[in-house]
Amino acid sequence: MDLLRFATAGSVDDGKSTLIGRLLLDSKSIFEDQFESVERTSQEKGYDYTDLALLTDGLRSEREQGITIDVAYRYFATPKRKFIIADTPGHVEYTRNMVTGASTADLGLVLVDARQGLTEQSRRHAVLLSLLRVPHLVLAVNKMDLVDFSEEVFTRINEEFTAFATKLNIPDLTVIPISALQGDNVVNRSDNMPWYEGSSLLHHLEHVHIASDRALRDVRFPVQYVIRPKSDEFHDYRGYAGQVAGGVLKPGDEIVVLPSGMTSTIKAIDLHDQQLDEAYPPMSVTVRLSDDVDVSRGDMIARVNNQPEPVQDIDAMIAWMSTKPLRPKQKLAIKHTTRSARALVRDVKYRLDVNSLHRDTDAGELLLNEIGRVQLRVTQPLLVDSYEQNRTTGSFVLIDEATGVTVGAGMLN
After folding, report:
1. C-alpha neighbours within 13 Å on the C-beta side of residue 46
2. How far is the C-alpha of 177 from the C-alpha of 155, rounded, in Å?
3. Domain final residue pick, 251, 277, 303
4. Residue 64: which CATH number?
5. Which candidate, 380, 386, 221, 411, places its Cα nearest to that of 311?
6. Which of left, alpha, beta for 252 (phi over 0: left; psi -120 to 50: alpha)?
7. How far apart are CA 236 and CA 217, in angstroms?
8. DSSP secondary-structure letter at 277?
9. Domain count within the chain
10. What CATH number is given to the structural domain containing 252?
């Protein structure tokens, strides 16, 4: 079975955590004692219903406030597919958490309250998912039970969001009316909305095509670790471990090791105790080469005639995650795939208004949760692709050297 990663997004109280709780419950992915605990807690709070959001909101402050603060990851599977859910916060001040959860997603699930329609935060999260190049987007119009399952309400929200999405880079958009609390159109089709002819949410998640979203054209294999066992049995074993970031690797392929430029061929590809005929994203494997060349952490294996571009001057969109502003002449550490370097902020070109898509060229700095175009200079060449071409080799994080805290996430132009 393949794996689908999806992230929830949307405004506060749109029902993201409740929807995930419903998915987990109706797909029989929680234990009886977990559900009994949630039922008991709901009764103690005086609710006349079972608050399914308690299945995902794990922090004490989240349960007290009834909001999501941190990114909560949940796992479940059906006979068709495995899933990893990133339940991200809806509040503006936790936008950085939403960016973190969505950065590795194959699909973005934006919820809107049928009573409220599209909000500023709904649009903000749609823009962020577009910037993060999440290839599939689902708009779930939630709480349809509170508007008497009105087709008119759904159609109005559908048309408004579809018109907004035309301004964004969203290759695949699906709109589904649901009621997370009641379970309508979540796992099974609802009899309350006979006018809706599409599939349920879970059916769509099970069948959305993601295989072609992988970067399979350009071979990119950042080396994370060199494996040299200290035993007589494997005294001549030398392998290079990492996660395939792009392309398909096969034994016999001619490759080049960057930045040294040394060439060799792939002798074997190992996964645990077995040898593979091929490896592709996002598999984590060990590659053995026919020649004893110098390869270390931070190097990248690529095809001889298809190499990433080594650059020291970086132009990127930055999502800033620190309370201290990002300003020109600031010095930071940068981590790109498995390679680390130091970076100098040369210029803040503009700040992007994620609601109107307006570019503020007079900004001069980025504040917490803001996104803008920034130019950096790094101390050593990084082997990069554009973010649009490869989300792994086209992204990086910025780190405060004094504290070791991640303060920014970048997407290369």
Report:
1. 0
2. 10
3. 303
4. 3.40.50.300
5. 380
6. left
7. 32
8. S
9. 3
10. 2.40.30.10
Domain with 225, as residue range(s), is 221-303
105-145 pLDDT, tens digit per residue, is 889 998 898 888 888 778 878 888 888 888 899 999 989 98
Assess whether 263 and 148 both reside in one domain.
no
> Do 292 and 326 lie in a common domain?
no
Do 19 and 135 lie in a common domain?
A: yes
> Band of the pLDDT at 344, cuts 50, 70, 90?
very high
The secondary element (H helix, E strand) that includes residue 7 is: strand 3-10
Contacts of 193 (CB under 8 A, 6+ apart): 144, 149, 151, 154, 177, 184, 185
3-state secondary structure of 279: strand
Question: Are residues 188 and 256 located together in one domain of the fold?
Answer: no
Residue at token pair 């992007």: 352
Given the DSSP bridges, would you call strands 3-10 and 107-113 parallel, antiparallel or unpaired?
parallel
Joined together, the tokens standing for residue 214 give 């992988």
- Residue 90, pLDDT above cutoff 60: no
Question: Among all chains, which residue has been given the structure tokens 């099974």?
Answer: 188
Residue linked to tokens 């969505």: 102
Cα-based distances in Å from 378 to 229, 332, 389: 34, 9, 21
In the listed set 158, 188, 213, which residue is the last one of a domain according to the structure?
A: 213
Q: What is the 3-state secondary structure (H, E, C) of 33-91?
A: HHHHHHHHHHHHCCCCCCCHHHHCCCCHHHHHHCCCCCCEEEEEECCCCEEEEEECCCC
Tokens 């959860």 belong to 101
Task: Determine how β-strand 3-10 pairs with β-strand 82-87.
Answer: parallel
Please provide the distance, in angstroms rounded to a whole number, between the alpha carbons at the two ends of the chain: 34
Give yes or no: residues 234 and 107 share one domain: no
